[in-house]
Design goal:
single chain
């Protein structure tokens, strides 16, 4: 409704995960309520359901939930995630009819029997270009987010920024016209259409360039879409990233295909096939999830597409982007300073090299704390209560009296409980002694 270059998948998956988290807190589900591992399994399954019900891709949604949700994944979670994904797909079929037409319907057909090696080389080159575009889009979005975080931190300024950028976005889209003014789904479907020729103006051009209309308009659309998408996805609004990046990738692939067709003028180079590969490859370069290729096959519903070009382009994009930068979600987690598990997905090559050269060689003595609460075997109850009142530490050291040699640790809760038991026992002894004295008197 706003016209921003954002997707709807992210908010729907977020809602699905919120429902799973709320259900996990219900006392009726004791298995989920008492186990953090089962709660993570429920969140992973909820992610699969969100993708499956929104896009109509149950298999790709399951695999995508594995890649995006987990640094380490228990294999026996996969059947439950698949079951939940299929259940969500069945409901989407009954209520929304997602099986009637693929999300990105395409009749593209790749013909590899002529010039197989040349085809694969072209798709590998396209994958490398898409991987770098995904990397640059991550860097551009992070730069915009840093600027927004410095200048528009308050709620009022953030709201003003969203309203102003929405107006600018719609003015640019209306002026450009063509697929820039249409919905992102319709724009992607047109980019995947094999019957359109190179004379089509994808956006409004100031003059007619003949057979060069397609190339020139795709260049303009790609630049505008790149900038608008990079800014839109970091606005302080609920926004997804898949649909808008799909359209950007389809434009890049279509541009590459039209350029190849313009140079070689070969009938078996179908630009729509390059558009399909580009849509998946740019998205993979942006989110570092190779399962997007499976999602793309389910979304297009093409029965004649050869999986080899898609696999070559997507794998090349993943390798190029993975070696250059982290994915968009990991970058946002770091910029927002949210807790995360440090793994291979959340770090890039430069960060791992810095860790090996610098952090791994720092002695423990340089960052360890020597001022810590401790108790000894001779610590009195009053001293222990003073330790509890001094800070909000969670555990203290248990050391020897003479040389403070470490014997173990004592949890704050256990020490407080022991002090409380000692006070109650002392009070009981005092009351018993007073009663005995009165009886003797």
């Amino acid at each position: 409704a706003s016209g921003l270059s954002v997707g709807r998948l992210g908010p729907y998956v977020h809602v699905s995960c919120i429902i799973a988290a709320l259900v996990s807190r219900l006392k009726a589900f004791t298995c989920l309520n008492r186990s953090a591992r089962h709660q993570m399994q429920a969140l992973s399954a909820a992610t699969a359901v969100g993708v499956s019900a929104t896009l109509g891709a149950p298999i790709g949604g399951t695999l995508l939930s594995v890649e995006l949700m987990s640094t380490y994944y228990y294999v026996h979670w996969l059947p439950m995630a698949m079951y939940c994904s299929i259940a969500g797909y069945i409901l989407a079929v009954n209520f929304n009819g997602v099986d009637e037409m693929p999300y990105f319907h395409s009749a593209s057909a790749s013909k590899l029997h002529e010039g197989l090696l040349v085809h694969l080389a072209l798709f590998a080159l396209l994958g490398a270009i898409c991987g770098k575009i995904g990397d640059y889009l991550v860097r551009f979005s992070c730069s915009v987010f840093k600027l927004r975080y410095r200048r528009f931190r308050s709620t009022a300024r953030g709201l003003l920024l969203v309203v102003a950028f929405t107006c600018v976005h719609n003015i640019v889209s209306y002026t450009g016209g063509g697929i820039l003014w249409k919905s992102q789904k319709l724009g992607t479907v047109e980019l995947l259409e094999p019957t359109l020729d190179s004379a089509v103006q994808w956006i409004r051009l100031p003059m007619d360039f003949g057979n060069m209309n397609g190339l020139i308009s795709l260049v303009g659309f790609g630049l505008l879409k790149f900038c608008l998408t990079g800014i839109s996805i970091v606005m302080p609004v609920p926004a997804g990233v898949f649909t808008c990046v799909f359209e950007l990738g389809a434009a890049v692939g279509r541009l590459f295909g039209e350029f190849v067709d313009f140079i070689w003028d070969a009938k078996y180079y179908d630009p729509s096939v390059f558009a399909m590969v580009g849509a998946a490859a740019v998205t993979i370069g942006f989110v570092h999830a190779i399962s997007v290729a499976v999602v793309m096959v389910e979304l297009t519903g093409s029965q004649s597409i050869n999986l080899l070009p898609l696999a070559v382009g997507c794998l090349t994009s993943y390798i190029v982007s993975k070696g250059a930068n982290v994915d968009f979600f990991s970058a946002m987690i770091k910029l927002r300073r949210l807790p995360f598990v440090l793994g291979l997905r959340e770090t890039n090559t430069e960060e791992r090299r810095w860790w090996r050269q610098n952090a791994c060689g720092i002695p423990v003595l340089e960052f360890m704390s020597t001022t810590y609460p401790y108790v000894t075997p001779s610590t009195t109850n009053r001293e222990a209560l003073n330790h509890l009142a001094q800070g909000k530490w969670q555990s203290c050291a248990f050391v020897t009296d003479d040389d403070h040699r470490l014997l173990g640790t004592v949890q704050r809760r256990a020490l407080a409980k022991a002090c409380g038991n000692a006070i109650r026992q002392a009070s009981h002894v005092t009351n018993y002694s007073t009663m005995s004295t009165k009886r003797a008197a």
